[in-house]
Design a protein that fits this description.
This protein is mostly helical.
């Protein structure tokens, strides 16, 4: 287990929250429907994990 999901360079978090490019990943339709722009999708995805990451860091 890692403290922050962006530590793993090939993680779905890195792709969906930070915009890391990978040819092997196809965006899920619900992820794409979440926002009109890539930047909005990245921000929304980070928000999904923000509370979990803050809780994990506090422990």
């Amino acid at each position: 287990m890692v403290e922050e999901p962006n530590v793993i360079s090939r993680s779905i978090y890195s792709i969906n929250a930070l915009g890391v490019k990978m040819d092997l990943q196809t965006p899920h339709p619900e992820y794409l429907a979440g926002s009109k722009t890539k930047d909005e999708r990245y921000c929304n995805y980070r928000e999904l994990f923000k509370a979990l990451m803050e809780t994990a860091i506090a422990k």
